[in-house]
Amino acid sequence: MLGELEELFLTEGFVEFTLDDLAARLHCSKSTLYTLAASKEQLAVKVVTHFFKGAAERIEQRIDGIDDASKIIEVYLAGVADELKRASERFMTDVAEFEPARATYRMNSQAAAGRIRSFIAKGVADGVFRDVHATLIAELATLLVEGIQTGVVRSRTGVSDADAFSALAELLLGGIQRREASP
Question: Residue 115 in contact with residue 69, Cβ under 8 Å?
């Protein structure tokens, strides 16, 4: 049932639904929904958390076994973009406007920023990336992730969160890749 709710919310958002609406759409009783959460708001948070937790697990599976930091960043951020492509604009707006859901997205984004930070440090240590100030680059990437998560990037550019994460990958990898010397 949680998976069905996730697909429904990703497609249509969640703010406008009542528990009666959800019960009718899922062909179940409201009491069945109450077994998942005590209120519509708690149900929304549970479903949003389920989405982000599942997304994080799928992204981690994608990078499992990759050792090259450049490839890890590329695959990791492509995974983030792919997961967010599943979410409609309505869902992302509902998340942004509902503080408990926004807090879940924020926590997930902070975890993603931490992972990116570790990938950059690994790449510098392994000699895959130029000798950059890894902490500074990672902090700048973190600020961009926060800008995406808070909706600032979306509101200023009209670009989806998925496309913003793809652009972040291009920016990061284009800026820190070790370049071969010209002949």
Answer: no
Q: Tell me how far apart the alpha carbons of residues 47 and 51 are, in angstroms, rounded to a whole number.
A: 6
Alpha-carbon distance of 74 to 69, in angstroms, equals 9
CA dihedral angle for residue 55, residue 57, residue 60, residue 62, rounded to 10 degrees: -70
Q: pTM for the complete prediction?
A: 0.82
Q: Which two tokens stand for residue 7?
A: 């697909």
Distance CA 26, CA 19 (A): 10
- Which residue matches tokens 């759409």? 25
35-45 tens-digit pLDDT: 999 999 999 99
Mean pLDDT of 160-166: 87
